[in-house]
Amino acid sequence: MKKQKTSAPLPLTDTLSPGIPLDQIGQTLASFYDELVSEGVPEHLAALVRRVRQTEHITTAQETTGPAPAPASEVPRVALVVEDDPEVRALAETLLEETELEVVGCDSAEAALSVLQARGGDVALVFADVRLAGEMDGLQLARAVATLWPRARLVVTSGHGLERPELPSEAVFIAKPWRALDVLVEAERAAAEPAPPVL
């Protein structure tokens, strides 16, 4: 009876996934672990954290393997208007279109977070009302922006008085009815700040 010849074990290479570096595989595995850990927080916040981390991983991978990013001057900076009243939102959008910023309007914090997840690095100004459609209000949105996108200028507005401790320290408060000049001044300050560096 002949002994069957056993072949030596194959070295641990990327044969199962050609072209994918081992550190990228490690990052992917780490992100799965992060997802499990983040399940301890409310689902909408866990989903937000996962999406932001995935965007960071994709950006890092593109920067290390992809073509050089376009110069910052070619990417338009964004003013994000978050207001559930369509007339007031349209007024703010029309006003901000007079600046060099590209204007994006949203009626809820959830819609604004979707824009921020996709274009957070381009957002120069977030102009948000406290009362919004959806589950999150403008104060919760302001806290999320201050934490996750600290380079965006944050302006919160309301027709009701607010105590300063309710707002993030980085936020500017403008009472309703706001004056066009006050909004334009904040937009100009946001546009004048340099875009965040590409890391």
UniProtKB/TrEMBL annotation:
GO terms for biological process: phosphorelay signal transduction system. Pfam families: Response_reg (PF00072). Residues 78-191 form the Response regulatory domain. The modification 4-aspartylphosphate is found at residue 129. InterPro entries: Bact_response_regulator, CheY-like_superfamily, Sig_transdc_resp-reg_receiver. The keyword Nucleotidyltransferase does not apply. This is Response regulatory domain-containing protein.
